[in-house]
Write a structure and sequence with these properties.
The structure holds two protein chains of two kinds. Chain A is α/β, with parallel strands linked by helices. Chain A contains 13 helices and ten strands. The model of chain B has no long low-confidence stretch (mean pLDDT 95). Classes of the chains: A alpha/beta, B mainly alpha.
C-alpha cells in the first residue's frame, strides 16, 4: 500500500522475476541476453538504483522481498516465468523456481505458469500437471523463445489454440503475452501482435495481457486493443521512461488512456530490471504536461489507483481493502469501438 | 580513388528500416576502413538481440550503397556484437539473401516488411507536418484542402515526397498534402481520426528512435559512431 497526500493506493506489481543469470548458468546467448537487460536497467534507472553487474546476474530472495514489499509498496507481485533454456540451461526463471520462493513468503506472490506450443501433445499433459500443482490463474507466453533451430512461434498456430483451449478448460483466464525480438517466420515484423488479435477473438473468455504494451509497437497494440475488449496492456518497460523521458511517458500513457481506457492498463516493474519503489512514487506524483493536456486527459488519483492495482486485482480476484474497493466510474476509451456488455 | 567521405555519404543514404533515419545519424556505423579500392565497414546496433530481419536489411543495404560508388572494389560490410552476426554477415557477403541467412526460419524475403515500415514512416512524418501546421495557427478543417506544395519546407516534407514515390503514391506538387495509406486524401470529417492515428505512430517511432540512441550510447560506453 502506498499513501500520498491523503490518497491510498493498493499496489499490484504485475510482472516480476527472480532470475539466475550467473556465468555458470548461461551460454553466449544468455550472456548477450542479460547484458542487454543490464543496459536497459542502467540506461533507464535513477543512478541510485543501479546495481553492479554481479548483483544483477544473481540477487537474493531477501533482496527481492525487500525491494518489492518492504520498501517497494507492493501488496502483491506476479511472477512471470521466463524459461529461456536455450540461453540459460537451468532456466532463467521457471515456474518451479518461482513457486519454491513464493511458498517461503506466503500471501505475497502470484505464481504464473507457461507453455510452448512446439512441445505438442506431451507438453500439453505437462502443462496440465503444472497447472494443477501450482493452482495457476495465469500464464506468461514468450513468442520469441528459441527452441532448437526454431526462433519463435505465433499465438494463432494450431497447437497454440490447443493450449489456449486447455487454459479455458482449467479455468486459467489470464494470458500474458510478451513479444519479440524474433518470431516465426523471421521475415515478419518480430514484434507483430496480429496473432494476439486472432487469439483474443477466438477466446473471448480469456484475458490477453500484452506485456510492455506492445513496445516497440505501441501503435499496433493500441489498434488491436481498441477492437478486442479482452486485451489489456502491461506497463513493464514503459514505466521507467517516467524518469528518463517523462514527456515520452506522458505520451505513452496518454495514448493508452485515449485508445484503450484506464480500466485495461496494468502497472508492472519488470523487477529486477527496475524497482517498484521509485516507479510507484514517481507515477503517483506524475501529471501530463500542460501543453499536452489538449491531446490527453489528466491523470487523476482514481485513474492511478486503477492502473497501480485495482485493474490487476479484478483479473486475479484479489481482495482489495474495503476503503478502496468502491470503484469510481471511469472515462470510456475514446478511441475504442463501442463494447457491448458481455 | 575512393574516399572516406564518399563512403560515409553512401552510408548516410541507408536508413534503419524501422526508424527511417540514416545509419550515420543513429550511431550505427562503428568504423570505415579503406585500402586501395577495397572498403570495409563495421556496423553496430543498440542491443545484441535487435530484430534479425532489420539487422539484415541494414547490412545488405549498406553493402549495396557502398558497392554502387564509382571506383569501389571489394566491399565488405559486417555487423558486430549481434546474436546473428555470423549468419547475416556470411549471407550478405555471398549474396544469399535473408533466406540464405536463416534457411528454415523464413517464408520469403523482406520486401513486405520494408514496405510496411515505409508506410508507418510516411504516416508519422505526415502527422508531424500536420501538427506543425496546427501549431502555426492553421485550423484542422483547412488541412483537407491543402496541396503538397503548401507543406512547410524541411526534412519531413522532403522525406514524405521520397516515400510517396517509393510507395507509388501521388507525389506531384498539386497532389493532396495528406494521404491515407491507400492513397486517398482524408476528408474533413476524417481528419481528426487521421491526426490521432498518425500521432500514435509518430509517438511510437520517435520513442523507439530515442531509446535506440540512448541504448547504443550505454552499450558502447559513450563511444560515438562515425557520422557523415
Amino acid at each position: 500500500m502506498y499513501e500520498k497526500d491523503g490518497e491510498q493506493y493498493y499496489i499490484v506489481d504485475g510482472h516480476v522475476h527472480y532470475w539466475d543469470a550467473r556465468p555458470e548458468n548461461r551460454n553466449r546467448y544468455g550472456e548477450g541476453f542479460i547484458a542487454c537487460f543490464y543496459d536497459y536497467h542502467r540506461n533507464l534507472s535513477p543512478e541510485e538504483y543501479v546495481w553492479p553487474k554481479e548483483k544483477y546476474d544473481s540477487y537474493s530472495e531477501e533482496d527481492m522481498v525487500h525491494d518489492l514489499f518492504e520498501i517497494g509498496y507492493a501488496d502483491k507481485a506476479i511472477f512471470q516465468p521466463t524459461y529461456l533454456k536455450d540461453f540459460f540451461p537451468g532456466g532463467f526463471n521457471t515456474t518451479e523456481q518461482n513457486a519454491a520462493m513464493a511458498a517461503r513468503y506466503p500471501g505475497r506472490f502470484i505464481v504464473n505458469g507457461a507453455w510452448d506450443p512446439r512441445d505438442g501433445e506431451p507438453g500439453l499433459k505437462a502443462f496440465e500437471a503444472l497447472a494443477q500443482e501450482y493452482n495457476l490463474q495465469g500464464i506468461k507466453l514468450y513468442t520469441a523463445e528459441w527452441h532448437g533451430s526454431s526462433k519463435g512461434w505465433k499465438l494463432n498456430d494450431k497447437w497454440s489454440y490447443r493450449y489456449l483451449e486447455k487454459c479455458q478448460e482449467l479455468g486459467i483466464r489470464n494470458i500474458h503475452v510478451h513479444k519479440g525480438p524474433t518470431i516465426w517466420p523471421l521475415n515478419r515484423d518480430s514484434f507483430d501482435v496480429a496473432d494476439v488479435d486472432h487469439a483474443a477473438t477466438a477466446f473471448p473468455e480469456l484475458n490477453f495481457i500484452v506485456e510492455h504494451v506492445g513496445l516497440p509497437r505501441l501503435e499496433d497494440f493500441c489498434w488491436i486493443a481498441t477492437q478486442e475488449p479482452n486485451v489489456y496492456g502491461g506497463l513493464a518497460v514503459a514505466m521507467p521512461f517516467i524518469h528518463s523521458r517523462p514527456r515520452y511517458f506522458a505520451q505513452i500513457i496518454g495514448e493508452l488512456c485515449y485508445w484503450i481506457g484506464e480500466d485495461r492498463i496494468l502497472f508492472a516493474s519488470d523487477y529486477a530490471i527496475w524497482q517498484p519503489k521509485w516507479l510507484v512514487e514517481k507515477f503517483v506524483d506524475f501529471q501530463i504536461p500542460e501543453d499536452l493536456l489538449g491531446e490527453y486527459a489528466p491523470l487523476t488519483p482514481d485513474v492511478k489507483r486503477k492502473i497501480l492495482g485495482l485493474n490487476a486485482a479484478k483479473l486475479y480476484d484479489l481482495e482489495v481493502p474495503a476503503s478502496l474497493a468502491a470503484e469510481p466510474v471511469g472515462a470510456a476509451a475514446i478511441g475504442s469501438e463501442p463494447v457491448s456488455p458481455a | 580513388m575512393i574516399t572516406h567521405g564518399q563512403v560515409l555519404g553512401a552510408l548516410a543514404g541507408v536508413r534503419d528500416p524501422e526508424l527511417d533515419e540514416p545509419l550515420t545519424d543513429l550511431g550505427f556505423v562503428e568504423a570505415v576502413a579503406i585500402e586501395g579500392d577495397s572498403v570495409a565497414v563495421r556496423l553496430r546496433l543498440p542491443t545484441y538481440f535487435c530484430a534479425p530481419n532489420f539487422a539484415f536489411l541494414m547490412v545488405d543495404d549498406a553493402r549495396a550503397a557502398v558497392q554502387a560508388l564509382d571506383g569501389a572494389g571489394a566491399v565488405r560490410v559486417e555487423l558486430g556484437d549481434h546474436f546473428a552476426s555470423e549468419e547475416i554477415n556470411d549471407a550478405v557477403r555471398d549474396e544469399r539473401g535473408f533466406g540464405g541467412a536463416f534457411p528454415d526460419e523464413t517464408e520469403g524475403g523482406l520486401d513486405s516488411l520494408r514496405t510496411l515500415f515505409q508506410r508507418k514512416a510516411f504516416a508519422a512524418r505526415q502527422g508531424r507536418l500536420c501538427e506543425e501546421l496546427l501549431t502555426a495557427g492553421r485550423e484542422l478543417h483547412e488541412l483537407a484542402s491543402l496541396r503538397l506544395a503548401d507543406l512547410p519546407a524541411g526534412a519531413d516534407r522532403d522525406r514524405c515526397v521520397e516515400l510517396r514515390v517509393t510507395l507509388g503514391l501521388p507525389a506531384a506538387e498539386d497532389s493532396p498534402a495528406f494521404l491515407l495509406p491507400d492513397g486517398r486524401a482524408p476528408d474533413r470529417a476524417g481528419l481528426d481520426r487521421y491526426l490521432r492515428i498518425t500521432r500514435l505512430i509518430r509517438v511510437s517511432l520517435e520513442g523507439n528512435a530515442g531509446l535506440c540512441r540512448s541504448l547504443i550510447e550505454t552499450r558502447y560506453g559513450g563511444v560515438q559512431g562515425v557520422a557523415a
